[in-house]
Design goal:
Strand order of the largest sheet: 6-7-8-3-9-10
Order of helices and strands: EEEHEEHEHHHEHEHEEHH
Organism: Clostridium sartagoforme AAU1
CATH class: Alpha Beta
Structural class: alpha/beta
Number of domains: 1
Protein name: Glutamate and aspartate transporter subunit
Largest sheet: 6 strands, mixed
GO molecular function, one term: ABC-type amino acid transporter activity
Keywords: ATP-binding, Nucleotide-binding, Transport
CATH architecture: 3-Layer(aba) Sandwich
CATH topology: Rossmann fold
Distance between the termini: 38 Å
Number of helices: 9
Family: Belongs to the ABC transporter superfamily.
Helix content: 25-40%
Length: 250
Amino acid sequence: MKEEVLLKVRNLKKSYGEIEALKGIDLDVKKGEVVVVLGPSGCGKSTFLRCLNGLENIKEGEITLKGHGILGKEVEFEKVRGTIGMVFQSYELFPHMNVINNILLGPTKAQNRDKEEVTKQADELLKRVGLFNRKFAYPRELSGGQKQRIAIVRALCMNPEIMLFDEVTAALDPEMVREVLLVLLELAQNGMTMVVVTHELEFAKHVADKIVFMEEGTIVEVSTPEEFFSNPKTERAKSFLASFDLYKEK
C-alpha cells in the first residue's frame, strides 16, 4: 500500500534582498510521519518552517497540502492556517489572557467553533500534558516549560493535520526541556504528522522517521535516523555531528 503524501514541497525558494535563504527545497512529508530538520544555525531551517504555513512569502516554488491544493495559489494560507499548526520557541501567549482563554481564542474566533465543545477538547489536552490545574493561570505565573506545553495545546485545539515545531526547547532551562519533549514524543506515538526543527539530537534519534539535514539554504542529506547518526553520507553532516561528539570516523 502506497503511503500518502500529506505535504509536498517543490523548488521552494526564499530571498531577503540579495540573500538567498532557501535555494530550491524539495521535500515530501507523509501522513503520520515525523520529519526532523537538522543543520547549523543560519542554514534556513526556521525560514523553511515559516514558509510552510505562510508566515514568509516565497519567491518561487510550490507547497501542496493534500486535499487543499497549492498553498498561496489554489487556496490562501489564511484558509489553512489552523490545518498547519505551528509552535515557536517564544510561546507567543497573550499575557493579558489566562490559559484557557489563550487556547479558546483561535478555535472560537478563527474557526467559529462552539465554545463549550472547544473547552471540552482543551480540558482533555490540558490533562494529557499535566496542566489542567493551571487552566485559569496567567502566562506570568507559569514556567517556560509550562508555557510551551500550553502553546502546544493551543495549536492542537485547532485540529491541525500537520504540526510544525521550531526549536520549541531552545529558550528553556535544561530541566524544562524534558517535559516538552515528552509531549512531542506522545504526539508522534499517536500518529501526528510533524516537522520538527531542533538541536536536541538524542530526541531526534528516537522520534524521527526521517532526518533532513540542511546547509546554506539547501537540503544536502535525507536519511533515516539510523543511517544519519551512524553513517552520514556527506562530509558536512559528519562534521556537524562531530561537533556534538555524535560521530567519529571509524
